User: What shape does this take?
Amino acid sequence: MVDEQIELLKQENITFEKISIEEAKEYLIKNNNYRNLCLYKNLFEKYYIDGKYVNKYIDLDFAYLKDLAIIDFELRLLLYDIISDIEHYLKFRIINLIINKDNKVIRKYLNKDKRNKYTKNLSENTSIEDLLDLLPFGKLIEFYEFFVKTSKLKEDKKYVNLLKEIVTLRNRVCHNNKILANLNETVENYIINPDVLDYLKKCKIDKESRNVISNSTIRQLTYTLFMFNILVTSEEIKEHIKELLHKLFFERIIKNKNFYRKNKLLKSVYKYFKKIIMKNFEIAIDTH
Assistant: This one.
């Protein structure tokens, strides 16, 4: 079976120069991820012959696919930490806001949907801490939205849709879906939150470079980094995430940067996030 997979890759003009065929076979056997590995092929250009693309890739070695799979895995580990911190500090923010407002919102929320499996057995005297501990991330955002609308919190209203996108990313991470595999997919009609737009401008990302946000994954990653800075108040946690970002972004990802020197898509995405990370996590380093 592995021999057949190798032959299929060869037929698509995927080379085995940076890694031997035997090493590639061993990798496929041990990781059993031929299908997942092939998802990254879409990030590379195909030959354009007689007015149409043919199923032959330009400058694509098996080693590039393997490298991307490893980077993707490490990115998912980092995102799990970042999104967990966002979830924790969103709960902290809600608790502080409710203390300063009116906790009648808890009773209203419990009465709103009595079929909610997470809250149907709770009494109206349930504390906000106990309520939030029961809600998974998606339901937490649902409660946050309800609270924001009920209490007319204009400042927080703008964060709700951003957090919904982060929930989608979090689900992809937890289900081990490949984060980088669809970076080539874009939509024409999308709206950038005004605060995020200002955020990108402060990162010195020009209008042309901002076009990458038309990709849903890039948008979700952008919102995740943005909301982390908005919600997380612990300097220790910020420093920890900064160290992890540095290790992944400025060490691991560029370890084999020569693999991608001709890949305009991946280079543009890297440049985009490099500016965000260096500006908002105060990482000053010349990665060339």
In short: Residues 88 and 171 are 16 Å apart (CA to CA).
